[in-house]
Specification:
alpha/beta, 2 domains, eight-stranded parallel sheet, Urease, subunit C, domain 1, seven-stranded mixed sheet, TIM Barrel, binds N-(iminomethyl)-L-glutamic acid, binds fe (iii) ion, globular, 17 helices
């Protein structure tokens, strides 16, 4: 049970706890020394965005704007974990730096938790720039898919690619994400659409997690499209996903979540329900691509099956939003897809917030509807097109996004005991993060206490 073993996740537990041994180690460090031992210190931040609180669940409503900012703040880590956070002089007093400690002066910079990107389709081969032209000529996304293009052209290229090629491509994408401040990424399968090809992609996802500093979380999405072998027989394919794919993925423990593209003309509500429930019975937490192109009741289904998150939601109904809020389903918005598809329609983020639904943001990185790897670009869109407040945007890209991946107790805020996943941005206030357009303002990235990006460039470890 690879994923579950790694984090000690109980299959249906929506909350990962910090392993007891790690916590013990941190507490012992404080007891043994006069100060807490630290080998990394980031100090004097113009703003240290901690997002610290007593809230151990995804944030809703006004609590999304409470970033718990410390001006002139510092954060210290020992190896992988944060050991002290606070005012610079207080932290200096609290810690005992090891002789090889790294000290980073973050004066005039904003320091915040590494971004969590909770929705991507990062493992694929080929490219789809031709669709930009087709769309400019008036073809819609679903028309392109119906004529054998879209997802299916990526399926063909991905099936033809060797596993090693997919690993190399994926590694490069992750490097770019990391240089833009992302430290945890979810990746869905879904460009294989047969048992062997889906397993190939999921094994690539697992390998990327082992090879790359970024923590990678796997989602099984065999129901991403109907493959050519099953054209006209969607029901038959749904049966194949349930009877053959899900058990094979479970056997190798290759994913934590199960996702479905629930959309008119793709997988219906009842087909999606069947797949998500079959996944749940094996311990895969449900996620769902819902109400992206038209209303189909995907938000309601997410609430019904107790999904951890529902994504896209441009056409979600008020009733669906209300039910998601009631069931604590996290809404993941993917404004990169609206932008790329030229939909001129974005999810109604304010309606979700007013209903008390927790919200998160993600790139949806994929070759068709969102070819971006930058959470900063998504933040730009969230501010400009969805009218979210910069504080809500930060919370949705860190704290709440971590909960959307069942990692709320591990990452998403700068608090003692959490992973030292830290981004240092070359701006003096967080208000400027979604305001700077089209450039990368990341200066440094620290992943599990290691400096991995310095002055915008990858550090060779
Ligand atoms: O999230 N909506 C379905 N899946 C992706 C698109 C995948 C593709 O076009 O290759 C999405 O938008
Ligand atoms: Fe997607």
């Amino acid at each position: 049970m690879y994923w579950k073993r790694r984090y000690g996740v109980a299959a249906l537990d929506h909350c990962v706890t910090i392993p007891a041994l790690v916590m013990e180690e941190i507490l012992l460090m404080g007891a043994k020394e006069s100060g807490v031992r630290a080998n990394l210190l980031v100090e004097n931040a113009s703003e240290l965005i901690t997002l610290a609180s007593d809230i151990a669940r995804p944030r809703t409503a006004s609590s999304m704007r409470e970033l718990a900012i410390i001006k002139g703040g510092s954060v210290a880590a020992f190896n992988e974990h944060i050991v002290a956070v606070g005012d610079a002089s207080k932290v200096r007093k609290e810690i005992e730096l090891t002789s090889d400690a790294k000290i980073i002066n973050a004066e005039d910079m904003v320091v915040l938790p590494g971004f969590v990107d909770p929705h991507t389709h990062l493992v694929f081969a080929g490219s789809r720039e031709g669709e930009f032209i087709q769309r400019a000529e008036g073809k819609t996304y679903l028309e392109i898919l119906k004529s054998g293009g879209g997802i299916l052209s990526t399926v063909k290229a991905t099936r033809e690619a060797a596993r090693s090629r997919l690993v190399a491509l994926g590694f490069k994408h992750l490097d770019i994400m990391m240089s833009h401040g992302t430290t945890t990424v979810e990746i869905k399968s879904g460009y294989g659409l047969s048992v062997d090809e889906e397993l190939k992609i999921l094994r690539v996802i697992r390998e990327l997690n082992e090879l790359h500093p970024i923590d990678v979380v796997g989602t099984f999405m065999g129901a991403h499209a109907v493959p050519p072998e099953y054209t006209g027989n969607t029901e038959g394919y749904v049966g194949y996903v349930i009877d053959h794919m899900l058990p094979a993925v479970d056997k190798e423990d290759l994913a934590e979540f199960c996702d479905v593209f629930c959309e008119k003309g793709i997988f219906s509500i009842s087909q999606s329900r069947k797949i998500l429930k079959a996944g749940l019975a094996l311990g895969f937490l449900p996620k769902i691509h819902a109400d992206e192109m038209v209303f189909s009741g995907g938000a309601e289904l997410a609430a019904e099956v107790g999904a951890i998150s529902a994504e896209h939601l441009m056409y979600a109904s008020n009733e669906g939003i209300r039910r998601m809020a009631e069931s604590g389903v996290i809404a993941i918005f993917l404004p990169g897809a609206s932008f790329t598809l030229g939909l001129q329609r974005y999810a109604d983020a304010k309606a979700f917030i007013e209903a008390g639904c927790p919200i998160a943001l993600a790139t949806d990185f994929n070759p068709g509807t969102s070819p971006t790897r930058s959470m900063q670009f998504i933040m730009n869109l969230a501010a400009l097109e969805m009218k979210l407040h910069p504080a809500e945007i930060i919370c949705a890209s860190t704290f709440n996004a971590a909960y959307a991946l069942n990692r709320g107790n591990l990452v998403g805020s700068l608090e003692v005991g959490k992973l030292a996943d830290i981004v240092i941005m070359d701006v003096d206030t967080y208000l400027k993060i979604p305001y700077q357009l089209g450039i990368n303002i990341v200066d440094k990235v620290i992943k599990k206490g290691q400096l991995v990006i310095n002055e915008g460039r990858r550090v060779v470890l």
